[in-house]
Design a protein that fits this description.
- The chain has 151 residues and is mostly helical.
- A two-stranded antiparallel ribbon has the order 1-2.
- It has helices at 13-18, 25-31, 54-62, 108-119, 124-131, 135-148; strands spanning 37-41, 48-51.
- It has three domains: 1-33, no CATH class; 34-69, no CATH class; 108-148.
- A hairpin with a 6-residue loop joins strand 1 (37-41) and strand 2.
- Helix 4 (108-119) packs across helix 6 and helix 5 (124-131) crosses helix 6 (135-148).
Length: 151
């Protein structure tokens, strides 16, 4: 019969197949080793995770989990693009590029909260800590909110 390496209690045979310590909290905390988990394929539909053991590390180094669409080293050869010939009856039209305003990196509700906190007298550092953003972002949010809402 197997015994716990920490406290000496007899282990259940099924537990002894995988572990050499008992399930008591003290023994687990002393003997359990954390596993390293890696995200190998992340997309909108489903993420895939992998426990990093020696075999998985070798596979990652060899490029086994590399996306074929993203890596040219995984494909069979260089991709050839078809050359498009312009249609003789159609002239290429060129429109001047429209200047795009950069989208803010915060939500409207965050902007509203930043304005409320600012009007109550909170400093940008305090607001940034509460909202989890940088002080610069807070000042940009307050300025945008003030231009949107005329105080």
């Amino acid at each position: 019969m197997a015994h716990c390496v920490t406290c000496g209690v007899e282990l259940h045979p099924e537990r002894a197949e995988r572990y050499d310590y008992c399930p008591r909290r003290e023994c687990r905390e002393e003997n359990a080793k954390p596993l390293t988990i890696a995200a190998v394929a992340v997309n909108k539909a489903a993420d895939q995770y992998l426990v990093l053991n020696d075999q998985a590390k070798e596979d990652l180094a060899a490029g086994k989990y590399q996306g074929q669409r993203k890596s040219s080293s995984v494909t069979d050869g260089p991709r050839h693009k078809r050359a498009r010939t312009p249609s003789p009856t159609r002239k290429p039209t060129r429109h001047p590029p429209t200047p795009q305003r950069p989208r803010p990196s915060w939500t409207k509700s965050q902007e509203d909260l930043a304005l409320i906190y600012s009007t109550r007298g909170m400093r940008p550092d305090e607001i940034a800590e509460r909202l989890g953003v940088s002080r610069y972002t807070v000042t940009q949010m307050v300025l945008a909110a003030k231009s949107r809402v005329k105080l």
